[in-house]
Amino acid sequence: MRTLIGLAVLTAVAGCATALHLERAPGYTAPNKLVSCHADLPDDWRHQLSRTRTEVGSHEHVSVVAANGTADTTLVKTTRNRTTELVLRDSRKRQQVMAVQDDAQLFDVEFDGRWVTFATTPGPGSRDTTVYAWDSQKDGAPVRISGSAAPVLHNGRAAWADEAGVHLHDLAKKKDTVVGKGEAPAFFGDLLVWTQDGKFRAVRTDRGEAVLPEPLAKASPGASVASDGRTLVWTQDDRLLGWRADWPQARELAEIKAVPKTEGIVFPRVSGDFVSWRSESSYVTDIRSGATMHTSETEYWLEVRGGALAQRGRHAAAAAPLSAFSSLRAC
To answer: SUPFAM superfamilies given for it (predicted)?
Structure first.
């Protein structure tokens, strides 16, 4: 039974990994690992984020965890009064998708404009994960689709990798197919691509055989892969690479200096011309200019979520359409 619930308003906007924001001590300044082109946070970005900023109390947490392509429909995760709710919000309604007792029990939320997928655990200390899908066009209950890895989502199809292999799941037809062995699946054009033994593999999303485009066949991807359907990005050593079908070859989008015993480039997310990623703190890369912005302060922890750029802070949240942000200045 779905219910409509109240929610603190996030004003201007009516998305493979757990939440990226890490709690840091006040005044923490993250190191900048960039070797490639660096740009400062533009003033208009600060303005857009401050205009949509919502302050919450010391015992509350609000974050935009997913958005559709135009960012006028969002999935908002709210924790207050010992309850965490996942709510779909647009200009007409606020609709509860799921409620749990602890913030850590609900994570890996994805949204393709219609379907929502998310993962839950029975308790904050449990590792038993259940993944659900929910159709926002129907007022039904979420449906279990997996008991393990959280999926990526695109145009009504979900994909994930587990011990059985790489799954391609049609949500409307409730049809699940294991299409190969490997990790890190991503939807790219009419392909589902994934990694196996340091190389890309692929099938067509209609489950037919596929021939990898030459730039992908030559690539040596690392552990992290992401796509918005048009742009495929992946890590390779300490570099972030990307490719589009109209590019003659893959491009280096960003590079960091190797720092022993710290994380490299992880959790990339791409939408349009922006890629957000993490390496101890958050970074946003502009594909057009080749510049990357590093957020050194926890209050400006930024990540791409569908068609929105979302800010996640200790006691504040904000999100605005990616179309509202200027290009980062090239070096």
So the answer is: Tricorn protease N-terminal domain
CA-based end-to-end distance of the chain: 53
pLDDT tens column, 170-187: 999 999 999 999 999 999
Give mean pLDDT, residues 6-19. 35
Give me the residue spans of the domains in the chain. 38-324
Measured between alpha carbons, how far is 129 from 151 in angstroms, rounded to an integer?
A: 12
β partners of residue 82: none
Helical spans, DSSP H, in 36-131: 43-51
- Tens digits of per-residue pLDDT, 244-266? 999 999 999 999 998 876 789 99
How many CB atoms are located within 10 Å of the residue 83 CB? 12
pTM assigned to the model: 0.88
> How many C-beta neighbours within 10 Å does residue 138 have?
9
Fold (topology level) of 38-324: Methylamine Dehydrogenase; Chain H (2.130.10)
